[in-house]
Amino acid sequence: MAVGSSFSSRTAAAPAPQPSAASAVPAAPANPEFLTTDEAGAFLRLSPRTLEKHRVLGGGPRFRKFGARVVYAAADLRAWADSRAYGMTSDPGYVQRDSVR
Q1: Cβ-contact 54, 101 below 8 angstroms
Q2: Is the pTM of this model over 0.90?
Q3: Most exposed residue of 8, 48, 71, 98, measured as fewest CB within 10 angstroms of its CB?
């Protein structure tokens, strides 16, 4: 190494190039209107598999199909959850089960 050379000038990293606005992918909205099965499961705190079973057997939230993709509207998930709200275990309809096991 030569006397008087600056080691720090060789180790400084060049700034990363910024993507142009035209090539940038738009960010997903903070509160999307439609959710995937995984996102809907997380929203309802249910397994995605439970939602898949509800689609086949019935009794689950309304869903939409866009080609092969299944999505749930956030409003439908909230309405489905609200329709299953009970004040106490003796409420009419609480004992009656919609699902088939």
Answers
A1: no
A2: no
A3: 8
